[in-house]
């Protein structure tokens, strides 16, 4: 787990002011990838005592804009955030509980996939979501994580 000094250096290098909410949110994203905003607010409050929803949303926007955090939005789930940026990896998503896991590129170098027609675009990233069931859901074991509550299975 990075120290506050390491996190401060990361923020400054990205041209961001160091604030307690930014440190708390960046630390939470790095500690547990794929959390939604609600879980990040809880993590920030656990560290700081009090922080507004809006402050966390503002911090997340700043971190995403600075390229320190990636926002992913699997269909049917709240946006999730991760600190693994710049490598064009993909995700496995459980249809039952919403758990998300990283998976490296399927084939080749970024952008990993070549579109059948690029329509003149210079492609620099491919976003791929693999859908299925996580090992716990496939075995019929309920997910213990409040960040990944069970929900209706997708058809």
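^ Assign residues to that structure.
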């Amino acid at each position: 787990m990075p120290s506050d000094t390491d996190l401060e250096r990361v923020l400054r290098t990205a041209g961001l002011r160091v604030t307690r909410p930014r440190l708390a949110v960046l630390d939470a994203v790095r500690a547990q990838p794929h959390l939604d905003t609600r879980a990040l607010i809880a993590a920030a409050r656990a560290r700081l005592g009090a922080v507004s929803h809006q402050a966390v949303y503002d911090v997340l926007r700043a971190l995403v804009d600075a390229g320190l955090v990636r926002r992913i939005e699997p269909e049917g789930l709240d946006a999730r955030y991760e600190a693994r940026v710049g490598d064009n990896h993909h995700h496995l998503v459980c249809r039952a509980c919403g758990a998300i896991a990283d998976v490296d590129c399927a084939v080749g170098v970024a952008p990993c996939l070549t579109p059948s027609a690029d329509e003149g675009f210079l492609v620099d990233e491919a976003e791929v979501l693999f859908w299925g069931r996580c090992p716990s859901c496939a075995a019929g074991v309920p997910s213990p994580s409040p960040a990944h509550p069970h929900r209706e299975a997708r058809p």
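The first strand starts at residue 35 and ends at 36.
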